[in-house]
Amino acid sequence: MGVDHVSLRPVVEDDLETLERFTAEPEAGGAFNWLGWSDPHRWRRQWAENGFFDAESGRLLVVRGAERLGFVSWRKALTSRNSHCWNVGILLLPEARGRGFGTEAQRLLARYLFAHTGVARVEAVTEATNIAEQRALEKAGFTREGVLRGYAFRNGRWRDAVIYSVLRDEVELPD
User: Which residue, among 122, 120, 163, has the nearest Cα to 144 in the 3D structure?
Assistant: First the structure.
């Protein structure tokens, strides 16, 4: 089973233990996503509240068959008084990284968001030193737009980030 068998699906209660690894195990978050200890119950609370879907954000599990690989997420980013785009992210378990799953999951997420919402733009931001994620975004069809200086605080200092986007007319949607 290869990368072409990666899919996205809604999170179910049995998946919560997998998601909890990201707040309980520093190595699960990895070098770019471990932001320190945080509320260990937030996953269960948010899932019970709305199943990880509301008008402002969402989260889907990344799977390959029955194997849980991680998750993708999106949140509304206002672009003007009367428009917005989606800002997306991904977090894969350590055992799923470096195998092309992230590229395919992000490609699928962009297609999903364009197929089911009216936005014209999907964007992603990653640390400037996260070369693997930059490559994955480019392979998924995103275009690098520029550097955001002093954008995010992690591990004791402010980090530069790189912003990427893909536009609706750049993505082939299913009929």
Answer: 163
C-beta separation of 131 from 162 below 8 A:
no
Residue with tokens 């978050």, as numbered in its chain: 29
Full-model pTM:
0.94
Q: Count the residues in the chain.
A: 175
Contact present, 61 and 71 (Cβ < 8 Å)? yes
pLDDT digits (tens, 9 = 90+) for 81-135: 999 999 999 999 999 999 999 999 999 999 999 999 999 999 999 999 999 999 9
Three-state DSSP class for 1? Answer: coil
Cα 132 to Cα 97: distance, rounded to the nearest angstrom: 9
- Please, what is the average pLDDT of the chain? 94
**Spatial CA neighbour of 129 closest among 160, 171, 95, 88:** 160
Contacts of 107 (CB under 8 A, 6+ apart): 140, 141
The pair of three-digit structure tokens given for residue 37, joined into one six-digit string: 């200890």
CA–CA separation, 3 and 75 (whole Å): 25
Determine which helix (DSSP H) or strand (DSSP E) holds 24, and give its type and residue range.
Answer: helix 16-24
